[in-house]
Amino acid sequence: MPDRLPPLTALRAFDSAARHMSFAKAAEELHVTPAALSFQIKSLEQHLGAPLFLRLNRAVALTEAGKTLAPGASDGFQALTAAWRATKRLQDHTALTVTAGPAMTAKWLAPRLYDFARAHPDIELRLAASLRMVDLERDAVDVAIRFGYGADDGLYSVPVRKEWMTPVMTPELAQKYPTPESLKQAPLIFDDSIAFLSPPCDWPTWFRAVGIDHSPSRGAHFSNADHAVDAAATGAGVALGRRPMIIKDLLEGRLVAPFKVAIETRARFRFVCLPGAETRPQIAAFRDWFLAEIEKTAHISDQFEIIPVEDIPQA
């Protein structure tokens, strides 16, 4: 005889009580009375034919049966909640939640959001700046802008232009350090957020690209790329700036890139969403806008000799 599942409300009551180890807290979470919650759990125990909780004086504990059921009940309700949330999102053609790293959000996305909002007034865009690798099936996120070497298996993924970096500084510092050789005496700024890249895209690599044997490590170190670029814009030093983080400052004159040699990594930003979701109107609109905005500044790359790091001799 096939197993017949107990009522969903009883399982929900058990899941909440097992997570809180408290009937009172579970009742509060589910907005029912403690008596009603206790009734649901008793009905579940009757359905099973065995107790799920040990009722102690001022607490409860799971029985062996309860410990067996709890993980599956928790996973089941999480999966059901995620599926329901994703299904509801399919019916919403106005809200769009996008996640990107803090640096990409601050230096590239945020300054351009007015243009997107003006072009798409019917879309309510929400940005979540985070380095956490979200689960697009479980988390309430529609689009992720990711950076790295990832294959994005099982997802719709559009890679954008290759990432390159070059020294940037204020116009005043550019007069003080007019040659690559002079940078050996300059205060250098380090972006530690790209330390994971392999081969490295760092100061020693850039110096080797211009034929200088110099491996600096001392200077101001920042864990976020936008902080490194902002420090350079104040005149604090010379940063090895990444293309999307420096474009706006270059165009507006806060920073200059006097040495027309850039080093390029295979790592890229990618536009990522669930397969099939790319056809939803608000996601398609954001993708098309995102790719078009990148192309608007593509001509900046033509000013540089861009050398792949794989072609640069390693130390």
From TrEMBL:
PROSITE patterns: HTH_LYSR (PS50931). CDD domains: PBP2_GcdR_TrpI_HvrB_AmpR_like. InterPro entries: LysR-type_TF_proteobact-type, LysR_HTH_N, LysR_subst-bd, WH-like_DNA-bd_sf, WH_DNA-bd_sf. It holds the Pfam family HTH_1. Keywords: DNA-binding, Transcription, Transcription regulation. GO terms for biological process: DNA-templated transcription. Residues 6-63 form the HTH lysR-type domain. The keyword Transcription applies. It comes from the Bacteria. One of its GO terms (molecular function) is sequence-specific DNA binding. NCBIfam families: PRK11139.1. Belongs to the LysR transcriptional regulatory family. This is Gcv operon activator.
